[in-house]
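During the practical work, I selected for study one protein's amino acid sequence and its backbone structure tokens, as given directly below:
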Amino acid sequence: MLTFYRSGGTSCAVATQIALEDAGADYKDVVVDLAGGQQRSPEFLKVNPKGRVPVLVTDKGVLTETVALLLYVAQTHPAAKLAPTDPFELAKLQAFNAYLASTVHVAHAHKLRGHRWSDDAAAIETMKAKVASNMTDCARIIETEYLAGPWVMGDHYTVADPYLHIITLWMEGDGVDLSTFPKLSAHKAAMAQRPSVKKVLSKLS
């Protein structure tokens, strides 16, 4: 059985948990109390020295980072068909997920975690002020360059879709006007109807 570590809120870990549900995976769900500092406890740091979620413990060892976890879930549950088998299409999926992880997530993080980049209070406030415009720029790129529709990769649902869904939920809180992005809005609505999404989001505390 897999052991999955996540936080209680709408973090990027939710994307992997949705994928686990989509795959029909057998896993143990472990909630890490980030607000209480559990991620810095000696016990958790033995699991992930980075002190972050998500974490997936497998029979071969520990995996971290959302992009890796999503691909692992897809490839270890091939019957669910959550990732392309064609090398080029798989690379396109990975390119999209990497963009979410390396660019969009970082742009979002400047709202609440500016202390990662600066100790200067004024600089942190400046970072916060840029979040809405930066996330809107990211939404525009996703809408025009990545989101084929109705799903990220076109007609076939993949592990890119739960990742995008969580990012889209963040966008609303970051000041992005989703009404100006019809494909993103349609994707959000379609994801909200999926049983796996309803199940996972209902667990969030």
Notes: The chain has a mean pLDDT of 94. The two ends are 24 Å apart (CA to CA).
